[in-house]
Write a structure and sequence with these properties.
This protein is α/β, with parallel strands linked by helices. It has a single domain, classed as STAS domain (Transcription Regulator spoIIAA, 2-Layer Sandwich). It contains five helices and five strands. Strands 1-2-3-4-5 form a five-stranded mixed β-sheet.
Length: 127
């Protein structure tokens, strides 16, 4: 009898907001079917006064090209408003997907969520 394969985590997002700072935790695969929900969360995060948007990608299992394009589009909108987008804790096996010309200069990569939130109001509230 074959051993049971571990279940892949299902897609889930959790949004935390403190003032003009946001933390979006993304879990599981971001496939074609999840892009709409990801974009819906980005709409909640984006405003003319968004100061900081941290995407916690530590539990990201996979990202499709449309998912990556949604992140690029969101980062461009935040940058136009002089805000900052930080991609935190990107799994090692997925880092290559985020090292694109489209994201260069738009986002900052952070090794940990804690490092990304260091000094922010959001970081102080979550401690």
């Amino acid at each position: 009898m074959a051993a049971a394969q571990p279940m892949a985590p299902s897609f889930d997002v959790q949004l935390v907001q403190v003032g003009r700072e946001f933390l979006l935790r993304v879990q599981g695969p971001v496939d074609f079917s999840e892009v709409t929900e990801l974009q819906r969360q980005f709409q909640k995060m984006h405003g003319p006064r968004t100061k900081l948007a941290v995407l916690d990608l530590s539990q990201l299992a996979f990202i499709s090209q449309p998912g990556l394009a949604a992140i690029v589009q969101f980062a461009r909108k935040v940058a136009r408003g002089c805000g900052e987008v930080i991609l935190a804790a990107v799994p090692h096996e997925l880092r290559g997907a985020f090292l694109t010309d489209d994201l260069e200069g738009l986002v900052t990569l952070s090794e940990t969520v804690e490092e990304a939130l260091n000094g922010s109001w959001l970081g102080l509230m979550l401690d």
